[in-house]
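User: Run a structure prediction on this.
Assistant: Running it now.
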Amino acid sequence: MPASRSNPTVLVVTPEVTYLPEGMGNMSNHLTAKAGGLADVSAALISALFDQGADVHVALPDYREIFAAHTAPVLKSEFRRIRDKMPDERIHLAEDRAFFYTTTVYSHYGSDNIKIALAFQREIINNIMPRVKPDLIHCNDWMTGLIPAAAREMGIPCLFTIHNIHTVKTLLASIEDRGIDAAYFWHHLYYEGMAVEYEETREVNPVDLLVSGVFAAHFVNTVSPTFLQEIVEGRHGFVEADLKQELTNKFYAECATGILNAPDPSYHPETDDALVQQYSAKDHAKGKRTNKRHLQRRLGLVEDDRAPLFFWPHRLDPVQKGCQLLAEILYHVVSKYWDRHLQIVFVANGEYKGVFHNIVAFHELYDRVAICEFDEQLARLAYGAADFILMPSRFEPCGLPQMIAPIYGCLPVAHNTGGIHDTVTHLAPETNSGNGFLFDVYDSPGLLWAMDQAMHFHSAPAQMRRKQIQRIMQESAETFNHDVTARQYIKLYEKMLERPLIAARPH
């Protein structure tokens, strides 16, 4: 490392990002390529590291069509001019026609995703890594799964973060056809079968990209400590055996940990423009009443600011999110609390949406249950209006709604698993602790019990409820933020580097 460089250089490699700090270069305001939470997490981590003074660089594909689509038409020519003359020293765009003209980060066709991933990694390995000369590389998910092997061969410490457990497999021959000299680091990759000789392996033995990232990385993290523990203990049958084994190996070698994601800082009731009335922890009761009345009127629900309002904030996916548990008890719970005007608002898409439409139509629950297409502004309003969110997830690698909601004074009703276990504790007003209502057994009676607990809290004296919600809002804002997450990553980087990440500034 050059003697003039006081701070170690960290290269963050990600296929998705939303925003970057302005100080990182001319392009920072124009780079938005998002398919899921990885984009927000990557952007927030990079921003937090940069703000704290770290020498952080980012590499991502040059999604020209996607980037231009997020630029106002009158600015597109300026966007192209800036990009073509880009002097940015910290933002590194991988160049290849494979992703110049794509309109989404991931394609519906698996072969296209493999081409994009290999082209991206070729540019990282062949051009960006030699130019940046990083002291540490931080990779994210399967689209960066070859880089830890190359980094290990080069002697560069590498962190591999698993956000989603999806993987893709491809042959060494295909990797080499895309311009990556895999023979250089092939022995650090993970194969479907035993790999002994390079030539025998090259065209018949697929490489697992996600497991290769875990296998070759110096350190691995998931985005929930409990979810990592659950994988190691074999509690999730959908996790492939190879991934489980390699994560277990890393875990017992003390080279794996969990670091929770955090919500985007724009999720805050004091500054959220989607709310009809913004509010703080101290005046939350008035603010939430105003937002509730507005939401009820907008959705055709019974207008009653004392009505308990439950909000479903995520996709209607029966595999992970547990929406079938709510479907089994929907009519029962609404009718049980009919006189108290219990209401449920869905702002979500997914395959179970039709099931809820049918239940509402059959029982004519139109003024008690609203089912809406996902819309971010409406979802934000619902956080500000609702008393509780519903998260009966079967499993949860991290989850963000259960962190966002209590910042708005909206308490989680959730299954005690994965990232939910790490962020939600059962509310106990008598000890001034907890922030939600948890059930341990994954079934509809368990969810009903937790909703009953929420309703019991809702019927408690107003002064006690205000005190608890104010405490929960304040604690959540202090705990669930990117500064906390960034500090944990900095601590991990320093452990891997065996030196401070940020040099002390002279007094």
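The CA atoms of residues 283 and 470 lie 9 Å apart.
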